[in-house]
Amino acid sequence: MILSMRDTQPERRPCGKWPGTGMLGHVDVEPFKPLPESWDRALCIVAHPDDMEFGAAAAVARWTGQGKEVVYCLVTSGEAGIDGMSPDECRVVREAEQVASAEIVGVGLVEFLGLPDGIVEYGVPLRRTLAEVVRRHRPDVVVTSNFRDTWGGRNLNQPDHIAVGRAVVDAVRDAGIRWLFPEQVEAGLEPWGGVRAVWALGSPQSEHAVDITDTFEAGVASLTAHSAYIDGLGWDHFDPREFLEGFSRQAGQRLGVRFAAPFEVLPMGWGD
Ligand SMILES: [Zn+2]
Question: Is 137 within the bounds of a domain?
Answer without folding.
Answer: yes
